[in-house]
Design brief:
By secondary structure, the protein is of the alpha+beta class. It has 2 domains: 58-117, Type Iii Antifreeze Protein Isoform Hplc 12 (Alpha-Beta Complex); 123-230, no CATH class. 22% of the residues lie in helices and 21% in strands. The protein has a 5-stranded antiparallel beta sheet. Strands 1-2 form a two-stranded antiparallel sheet.
Length: 239
């Protein structure tokens, strides 16, 4: 008996052999792509695992340019460089310790800056027992390059004001026959910060003196003009 108004059942849709083949190919391509991505990720992880860790290093302050003795260090004079820990010199300075320090000796560009290069207690390293670091105010500027760190000089005192006025026949005198130069400030063209201590156009030389020599120099300072006389190097060092 036929039911009025009821729709006939729909026939099932069957995929043809062509559609099934296309589906299988798409699945295979997706599997290959996924496998390639996984292989690439695994290879990258393996390479990263095989790369050695960077060697340890330490930041050391070096001179950014050639710096003369008597130069006061500023930030622009210094450049940090990474060095292996075993290559870091003793006494390497931090930025806070180096900035504002006064160089007791010249420093070449690229050379690490250590405490031994700064004016201070390190000036007397290697000095004889009892020696003092004594600033000597020199009458007039020192010609650039005439007196250097490590040179030996004699300290001469000129006649005092009374002698120049004719009140005393006393002339010049050798106060110190030989003293080692620790630092020179206020040479011609040096732009020294300590030069005003010697008066207008004067210079200051820091010398290693024994107590008796220091007393003689102190007694003449301010009352008599002082000069330095450069001594020849010892025969073994003379060229």
């Amino acid at each position: 008996m036929r039911t009025i108004g009821a729709a006939p059942p729909a026939a099932p849709v069957r995929a043809g052999p062509g559609a099934a083949s296309r589906l299988r190919r798409a699945l295979r391509r997706r599997r290959r792509l996924l496998a390639a991505v996984l292989l690439a990720a695994a290879a990258g992880t393996g390479v990263a695992a095989l790369q050695p860790a960077p060697p340890p290093s330490a930041q050391v302050l070096t001179a950014a340019r050639d710096l003369p003795a008597g130069h006061r260090l500023a930030e622009g004079d210094l450049r940090p460089v990474a060095l292996p820990p075993e290559a870091v010199p003793d006494g390497a300075l931090s930025p806070a310790a180096a900035t504002g320090g006064l160089l007791a000796s010249p420093v070449r560009r690229g050379e690490p800056v250590t405490d031994a290069r700064l004016a201070g207690p390190s000036l007397l390293r290697g000095a004889a027992d009892g020696e003092l670091a004594v600033p000597v105010a020199v009458d007039g500027p020192l010609p650039a390059g005439l007196v250097r760190l490590g040179d030996r000089v004699a300290v001469l005192a000129g006649p005092g004001a009374d002698a120049l006025a004719g009140a005393s026949p006393e002339g010049g005198e050798v106060l110190v026959r030989s003293a080692r130069v620790l630092l020179v400030e206020g040479g011609e063209g040096s732009g020294s910060l300590l030069a005003p201590a010697a008066g207008a156009g004067g210079a200051v030389a820091v010398l290693a003196l024994d107590p008796a020599q220091a007393a003689r120099v102190a007694g003449a300072a301010g009352a008599r003009p002082l000069q330095l006389a450069l001594l020849p190097p010892p025969p073994a060092l003379a060229s």
